[in-house]
């Protein structure tokens, strides 16, 4: 009898660990490392949100709460869905968890049975396939290629649906590409889903507020109200409000599903941090004024990075609609040899050599299910971005 659960055999260790461990080792050796791997804003949580948390502590709001959220936060979430997405939800249709991650995990745990398939557009956020596997389901990947702006088409979605499909997992703007689906692009997908009533939609709207230029965010239940009864709309405060460490995410959907998710949470973590819940009430109900200047800064950084990377020989970098990532192709670098003598046989070899030879840490595309690419998070200072892009350029110019 083995001690560890067979469940763990289904999931792989995080493929990003090799690069991050190597980056940490090099830093410890005194090397000058620029990390472009972090999936979080580099600015601080706004003061009004911090103040709400401090007030909660002073007011003694430091005890257990209802398993899936305090009524005040559920109310704020309902108001948010009405205000931003024109979606009507009652508090009984809302679940609050320890980050968007727990909410997604609860939903899979509450619904997947062996043999159930979950359609995941690739490239995808690293945790999706493994969460599905942990839940006993089967991930089915549909490739969104660079030529189509990393988005999937209605025909691709149609072709991927089988009688076993339980969920279609949607993420726009996307981690890792920043790609955002327009209303019409999303409507083409929801049109397909209408034809298959057994398929539910899990939409991860984590980057909703990080939408740039003429791109306007939209979400499936808003685009196609007839999907409302089989859509779980997931969101959270981590990214837009710079609250990654506070660990509050939420979802709204059919009451029976929310109840099942509550059951999972009640036997694992119970309520998310009480103080963070009060901070999230302020994040959602308080001023949203900082979103615009933050987005202006992100747009400037996006353009800086996209222009600089497109100037590097062998790199092709689309300009994404949102989030704080770019996902350039390095097709023309593969098979070549770096200045330091490393054969770049795939994107992992590229990222490893880039780190070893220039000190720039990026995450290789295989981790997200589409190669050969790498992901850059531009949620860091202009100075670091300019220096990192200059080093990437020197690296590419040195390829033989
Ligand atoms: N969904 C996506 C697409 C993400 O990129 C992330 C975080 O990186 C999450 C969900 C998880 O968010 P949270 O930190 O709220 O758990």
Overview of the molecule:
The protein has 400 residues and is α/β, with parallel strands linked by helices. The protein has 2 domains: 6-44 and 290-397, Aspartate Aminotransferase, domain 1; 62-285, Aspartate Aminotransferase, domain 2. The protein is 39% helix and 12% strand. It has 13 helices and 12 strands. It has a 7-stranded mixed sheet with strand order 2-8-7-6-5-3-4, sandwiched between helices. Strands 9-12-11 form a 3-stranded antiparallel sheet. A two-stranded parallel sheet has the order 1-10. Helix 1 (17-28) packs parallel to helix 12 (347-358) and helix 2 (47-58) packs across helix 10 (274-285). The protein starts with 16 loop residues before the first helix and ends with a helix. Residues 39, 99-101, 125, 171, 175, 204, 206, 236, 238, 244, 249 line the site of pyridoxal-5'-phosphate. It is an enzyme of class 2 (transferase). One of its GO terms (biological process) is amino acid metabolic process. Keywords: Aminotransferase, Pyridoxal phosphate, Transferase. This is Aminotransferase.
Features:
alpha/beta, Aminotransferase_I/II_large, 3-stranded antiparallel beta sheet, binds pyridoxal-5'-phosphate, Aspartate Aminotransferase, domain 2, Aspartate Aminotransferase, domain 1, single chain
Record the SSE blueprint.
Blueprint (H helix, E strand, L loop, with lengths): L16 H12 L5 E2 L11 H12 L12 H15 L8 E4 L1 H13 L5 E6 L4 H8 L3 E6 L10 H7 L4 E7 L11 H12 L5 E5 L15 H4 L7 E6 L12 E4 L2 H12 L7 H12 L5 H20 L14 E2 L20 H12 L1 E2 L1 E2 L9 E4 L4 H16 L3
Parallel strand pairs: 1-10, 3-4, 3-5, 5-6, 6-7
Antiparallel strand pairs: 2-8, 7-8, 9-12, 11-12
The protein binds pyridoxal-5'-phosphate.
């Amino acid at each position: 009898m083995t001690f560890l659960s067979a469940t763990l055999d289904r999931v792989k260790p995080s493929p990003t660990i090799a690069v991050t461990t190597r980056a940490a080792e090099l830093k410890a050796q005194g090397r000058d490392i620029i990390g472009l791997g972090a999936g979080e804003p580099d600015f601080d949580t706004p003061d009004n949100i911090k103040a709400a948390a401090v007030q909660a502590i002073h007011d003694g709001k430091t005890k257990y709460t209802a398993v899936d959220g305090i009524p005040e936060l559920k109310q704020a979430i309902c108001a948010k869905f009405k205000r931003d997405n024109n979606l009507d939800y009652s508090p009984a249709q809302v679940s609050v968890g320890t980050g968007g991650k727990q909410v997604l995990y609860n939903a899979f745990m509450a619904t997947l049975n062996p043999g159930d398939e979950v359609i995941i557009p690739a490239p995808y956020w690293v945790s999706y396939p493994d969460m599905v596997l942990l839940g006993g389901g089967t991930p089915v990947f549909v490739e969104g290629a660079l030529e189509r702006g990393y988005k999937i088409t209605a025909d691709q979605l149609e072709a991927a649906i089988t009688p076993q499909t339980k969920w279609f997992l949607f993420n726009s703007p996307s981690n890792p590409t920043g790609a955002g689906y327009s209303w019409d692009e999303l409507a083409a997908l929801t049109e397909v889903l209408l034809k298959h009533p057994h398929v539910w939609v899990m939409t991860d709207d984590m980057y909703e507020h990080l939408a740039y230029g003429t791109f306007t965010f939209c979400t499936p239940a808003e685009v196609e109200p007839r999907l409302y009864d089989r859509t779980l709309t997931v969101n959270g405060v981590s990214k837009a409000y710079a609250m990654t460490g506070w660990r509050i995410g939420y979802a709204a959907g059919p009451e029976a599903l929310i109840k099942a998710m509550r059951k999972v949470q009640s036997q694992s973590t119970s309520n998310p941090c009480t103080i963070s819940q009060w901070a999230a009430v302020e994040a959602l109900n308080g001023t949203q004024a900082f979103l615009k200047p933050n987005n202006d800064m992100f747009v400037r950084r996006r353009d800086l990075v996209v222009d600089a990377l497109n100037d590097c020989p062998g790199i092709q970098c689309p300009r994404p609609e949102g989030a704080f990532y770019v996902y350039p192709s390095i097709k023309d670098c593969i098979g070549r040899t770096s200045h330091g003598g490393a054969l770049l046989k795939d994107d992992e070899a590229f990222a490893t050599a880039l780190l070893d030879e220039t000190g720039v840490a990026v995450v290789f595309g295989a981790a997200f299910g589409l190669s050969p690419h790498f992901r850059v998070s531009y949620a860091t200072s202009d100075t670091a971005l300019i220096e990192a892009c200059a080093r990437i350029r020197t690296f590419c110019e040195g390829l033989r």
